[in-house]
Structure formats: C-alpha cells, structure tokens
Amino acid sequence: MRLRFFTLLCLCCCWFVSSEGETVSCSNIVSSGFRSDNISITDFGGVGDGHTLNTKAFREAIYRIQRLTRVGGTLLYVPPGVYLTEPFNLTSHMTLYLAAGAVIMATQDSSNWPLIAPLPSYGRGRELPGGRYMSFMHGDGVQDVVITGENGTIDGQGDLWWNKWRQRSLQFTRPNLVEFVNSRDIIISNVIFKNSPFWNIHPVYSSNIVVRFVTILAPRDSPNTDGIDPDSSSNVCIEDSYISTGDDLVAVKSGWDEYGIAYGLPSSNITIRRVSGSSPFAGIAVGSETSGGVENVLAEHINLYKMGIGIHIKTNSGRGGFIKNITVSHVYIEEARKGIRISGDVGDHPDDKFDPNALPLVKGVTIKNVWGVKVLQAGLIQGVKNSPFTDICLYDINLRGVTEPRTPPWKCSDVSGFAHQVSPWPCSELSSNQQGSCANYS
Ligand SMILES: *[C@@H]1O[C@H](CO)[C@@H](O)[C@H](O)[C@H]1NC(C)=O
Ligand SMILES: *[C@@H]1O[C@H](CO)[C@@H](O)[C@H](O)[C@H]1NC(C)=O
Ligand SMILES: *[C@@H]1O[C@H](CO)[C@@H](O)[C@H](O)[C@H]1NC(C)=O
Ligand SMILES: *[C@@H]1O[C@H](CO)[C@@H](O)[C@H](O)[C@H]1NC(C)=O
Ligand SMILES: *[C@@H]1O[C@H](CO)[C@@H](O)[C@H](O)[C@H]1NC(C)=O
C-alpha cells in the first residue's frame, strides 16, 4: 500500500508534498524578531560597481553593529549591485540582508586572506597541515545571526582556489564560503551561494541552525565544494533547498580521527527535508569524519539527479565515534553510479598518529521508501571487521538499472539487520524476519 502510494507520487512528480499530507518545517527552531535598526552598506562607503573593494565598508558596518547594540539587533542592507570584498566576520544580533540583485563577491586576490587556527576536532586543516584560510563570511562565538534577503548572491569566485588546488600550489586549506564556529541561533534563508572555494556552509560546534530556501551552486568538477556540512553541531534543520555542486550535497560530520575522538562533540538532531540537487558524489552523506559521533539524523523527501551515490554513510577504522539512529526516507534518485552505500573503509586520515583500533560503531540506520531509476549499482554495505554494522534496516526500496529491470546485486559484509520489499534483494546478511530490531528506529 505504502509502496503503491509512493509510486503514484513519483509518477505525479509531486515529491515535495509530504505523504502524510501536511507540511512540516523548521521555522520554529530559531526565532528571530524584527530588526528595528536598519543600516545600509552604502552608509559605510560601500560601492556595488564590481571593482571597488568593500572590505572596509563591511568591517566598519559590522563593527558599528557590534559596538552600538540596539534592542532587537540591526539589519545590514545590501542594495542591488556587485560588492567585491575580502573576508569579514559577522557579529551577534544582526541580519545581513541581500536585496534582489545584490551580490557579495569574494576578492580573487588571496594574498591578504587571513589565516586562522585549525579546528581542534580536526587537529589541522582539512586539506593541508597547519592553519586554514578564514571562511569568506565567518561567525565565531556569535548568536542570533540571520543571512537572508530576496535571493541575492554570495559568490566565492572559487575558480582561483580550485586551480591552485589542482596545481597543488596551496599552502593551507581553502576557505569555506560561510562558517559558524561555537555559535547558536542562526538562520540562513533566501540566498544563493555560488562558487565556494571549498565547503559552502559549515556550522561547527554550533546549535540551533536553520538553513532553508537556499540555492547552492558550483560546477560539477569543482573540488570539495560540499553544500552544507553540519559538524559537531546539534539541532540543525535544512529544508526546501536546491544544491548542485562538485561534492556531497549535505554531509553530517563530527571531527577527524584522534582529534575528533579527543574533542568528543557529536552532531545530533539533524533534520534535512525537501532538498534536491545533483552531484558526482553523495546526495545525503554522513561522514566520513564522524569521530565525535553522529546521532538522530532524519532526511526525508530528497530528490537526486545525476549522482555519484544517492545515500552514503561512511566511516573508517581509526575514526572511532559512532553513527546511530539515522533515518533516510522518501528519496527519488534518477541516474546514479550507486544508490545506497554504507561503508567502513572510506576517507583518509589526518596523520599517522591515528589509532587503527579506534573502530567506529554503526547502529540503527533505517533507509526506506527509496525509488531509483538508472542506478548502475543498487547498494553496497561493508561493515568494519571487528565492529560489524548492526540494526541496518531497509524497506520499500526499488532501484532499477539502466537496462531494465535489474541492477547488479547488492554487496554486503560485516552487517546485520532487516530488509523488506527491497528490489533488487540486498543480501542474506539482512534477514527478512527481524521486525523487532528495526521497529526501534522506524
Ligand atoms: C532598510 O533600508 C533600505 C534602504 O536603505 C530599504 O530599502 C529597506 O527596505 C529597509 N529594510 C527594512 C526591513 O526596513
Ligand atoms: C575575525 O575572526 C577571527 C576568528 O575569530 C579572528 O582571528 C580575526 O581577528 C577576526 N578578524 C577581524 C577583522 O575582526
Ligand atoms: C527565493 O528562492 C527560494 C528558493 O528557490 C524561493 O522559494 C523564494 O520564493 C525566493 N524568494 C524570493 C523573494 O524571490
Ligand atoms: C535532541 O533532541 C532530543 C529530543 O527532542 C532532546 O531531548 C535532546 O536534548 C536534543 N539534543 C541536543 C544536543 O540538543
Ligand atoms: C532517533 O532520531 C529521531 C530523529 O530522526 C528522533 O525523533 C528519535 O527520538 C531518536 N530516537 C532515539 C531513540 O533517540
């Protein structure tokens, strides 16, 4: 019955309608009131001609917001125009408002780009040892920050950085487009993110984060341009967004090997819904950096096109940490190398000090109501030898190949759990009569 209803929805192309018939949303996770104070970047000498460097204008406007605190906070208005600038810090109780036609564009001159310390849960920059370039927009220890408007654009002009990466001429890890560290009560909505040098939106050690009605774009061949990466963060809600980049669309993380284990801050209570997009890597990902643990993730109503892997849960020996209580449901995949992959041997290590006996725990992953067409390989579940994945539950899954009707069979090892109405049939490791072990997580 469920499957039939699902199929019907699929045929109607009505994927954004919840099958329960009601629209749930994350609008109540962060409340932000009306900003009575409204200043414009032009009051600080901002010029939107695409050439003038506006670093001073942005830093002074934000300094003014920080120093002259107004009840209800301040809105910083960016009128239509192209505002070139170096990176800048955000401050608490502010709204950065991009009018229709407003573009905040990162300078391509990286010589003055500030360096900041590596994240303690990574021990070094993600790409290279040592510090890392500060994100284009950076919030450290802030609260009540909104980035919104009328779908103006934040443009990272990443090609300079991608080329340096390709030529191996970078000294430090590339900047994210927007990063919040140790922050809370953040809303990012109605903004277009374009050509990030590295990951697009990176909340880390943060809580109560809402990202909705955003568009994130980067070329398919741009390296490491993840869409949204909640990292050691809790109560994060991502919805109603389109993401098409060169790497994972959404990847939930929590630190890297011995550094992430020592820091020990999980990502928890992460909701992802009504997200669509395209990527040569994963649509919905957990990992591979999960050393602080990841739990209570719900991803639903996800539409993926021309993918590397639809759903990818990834970890490695040496990671430690845990991946628990992950639910992914109502996913439509059209064209993918692999539909579903849960793997225990993915991702690199920060250095050779990682403990190979720090084995990850993967328990309670439910993937249901997945419909895929033109999927080259349905699925792959490879647990860790001395730490098999348990309570892995698959049901109502139909992944069709390019040559109808079947894709090659699943491959499984070191896994136990339950499967029901899965086509092609997954593998003998997943039994069809353990309803009990699945029920806790469905
Ligand atoms: C803020 O001020 C600008 C003009 O500087 C105006 O166009 C805009 O509508 C104002 N926004 C709000 C929310 O008051
Ligand atoms: C921005 O924040 C970073 C990290 O907190 C800090 O190192 C840097 O000095 C700040 N830069 C400015 C211009 O305030
Ligand atoms: C901005 O884009 C979002 C997502 O595409 C869309 O839902 C919204 O209506 C747009 N808002 C405006 C003001 O154009
Ligand atoms: C996650 O959500 C649960 C249930 O709503 C809540 O009890 C818990 O405190 C939340 N965790 C965090 C870290 O906020
Ligand atoms: C599992 O995660 C869901 C969110 O997807 C949450 O509602 C539920 O409370 C969690 N279950 C447990 C046992 O923590």
UniProtKB/TrEMBL annotation:
<dbReference type="InterPro" id="IPR000743">
    <property type="entry name" value="Glyco_hydro_28"/>
</dbReference>
<dbReference type="InterPro" id="IPR051801">
    <property type="entry name" value="GH28_Enzymes"/>
</dbReference>
<keyword id="KW-0326">Glycosidase</keyword>
<dbReference type="Pfam" id="PF00295">
    <property type="entry name" value="Glyco_hydro_28"/>
</dbReference>
<dbReference type="GO" id="GO:0005975">
    <property type="term" value="P:carbohydrate metabolic process"/>
</dbReference>
<keyword id="KW-0732">Signal</keyword>
<comment type="similarity">
    <text>Belongs to the glycosyl hydrolase 28 family.</text>
</comment>
<dbReference type="InterPro" id="IPR012334">
    <property type="entry name" value="Pectin_lyas_fold"/>
</dbReference>
<feature type="signal peptide">
    <location>
        <begin position="1"/>
        <end position="21"/>
    </location>
</feature>
<keyword id="KW-0964">Secreted</keyword>
<protein>
    <recommendedName>
        <fullName>Pectate lyase superfamily protein domain-containing protein</fullName>
    </recommendedName>
</protein>
<dbReference type="InterPro" id="IPR011050">
    <property type="entry name" value="Pectin_lyase_fold/virulence"/>
</dbReference>
<dbReference type="InterPro" id="IPR006626">
    <property type="entry name" value="PbH1"/>
</dbReference>
<dbReference type="GO" id="GO:0004650">
    <property type="term" value="F:polygalacturonase activity"/>
</dbReference>
<keyword id="KW-0378">Hydrolase</keyword>
<keyword id="KW-0134">Cell wall</keyword>
